[in-house]
Amino acid sequence: MSTEPITTAVEITDEEMRSIQDAIMKRYGIDFFNYEPKSFKRRLQRIYRKFNFKSSFDLWSRALKDKDFVHEFINEVSVGLTSLFRDPEFWKTYKSLCKSQFKDQYRINVWHAGCSSGEEIYTTAIVWDQLNFLDKVKSTATDISSRSLAQAESGSILKAKLPEYDRNLKEFDSSINIHDYFDEDKDEIVFREKYLQNVKFKNSNLIMEDYGVHQYDIIFCRNVLIYFDGPAKEKVIEKIYNALKPGGFFIIGFLDSMLSYLDEDKFEYYDLRQRIFRKKN
Ligand SMILES: C[S@@+](CC[C@H](N)C(=O)[O-])C[C@H]1O[C@@H](n2cnc3c(N)ncnc32)[C@H](O)[C@@H]1O
């Protein structure tokens, strides 16, 4: 018989959800209005359980009184599910794309938007190393969660995750040994510093930040837009379009259902199956 305590989720109305989003916006200037309501409510319920809140009023008053609470809030609201060589087939396609498109390019600018705890960055660094591109790649890695970002910057991965990661890695390229890239610690493996030296980490909210113009050759935004509602997706895609160089690549995840938001005049399909798009010139 299960010994798990039975907890009933507190019902959260749309109005309560909006009042919480409003409190966070007014107190901290952070915009959560565009999150998809159902999944945002589920996250709020998790926060209720964790902090033992009985009602939205408890959360609302804590958010207004305790300025450190916002970090906890962000960490709980953003879900950082990720993996090393997540979707190995994608990484095979990605590697051959980079080989054919960037072989002769002196500098490659890459942005990992919503990098979570860093596995996507470590994966690309391994690919760059295989292609001998490490010295010419400059990457920016951003996430709204300061906890995830600190984890990403530390390069460390719990050993418990190794079996899954090693399976992905072997599926991508059976000749790679994970220990060629990671040093072993007690409970963790740590990605070698030399592979992260051209990565700049930055805490930022995709919905609010300014992305700049014609900056990037590649923008990863995998499994992030899934949390946003339609208007927010449109806004982010428009800004990503502007931030890409002409001919630059925009990469989303298999969970991101957003083909209808991609304007055919602006993006062409480079590889639809692997969710790789290209900015039209
Ligand atoms: C599911 S993870 C995806 C990680 C990685 N891209 C991958 O596919 O393996 C989604 C990440 O998006 C981040 N995120 C969610 N909302 C965000 C926002 N508004 N701005 C920046 N990052 C956000 C979360 O903190 C989380 O780390």
TrEMBL record:
Transmembrane segments: none annotated. It is an enzyme of class 2 (transferase). InterPro entries: Bact_Chemotaxis_MeTrfase, CheR_C, CheR_MeTrfase, CheR_N, CheR_N_sf, SAM-dependent_MTases_sf. Residues 5-280 form the CheR-type methyltransferase domain. Keywords: Methyltransferase, S-adenosyl-L-methionine, Transferase. Its EC number is 2.1.1.80. Gene3D superfamilies: Chemotaxis receptor methyltransferase CheR, N-terminal domain, Vaccinia Virus protein VP39. This is protein-glutamate O-methyltransferase. It comes from Marivirga arenosa. PANTHER family: CHEMOTAXIS PROTEIN, CHEMOTAXIS PROTEIN METHYLTRANSFERASE. GO terms for molecular function: protein-glutamate O-methyltransferase activity. GO terms for biological process: methylation. Pfam families: CheR, CheR_N.
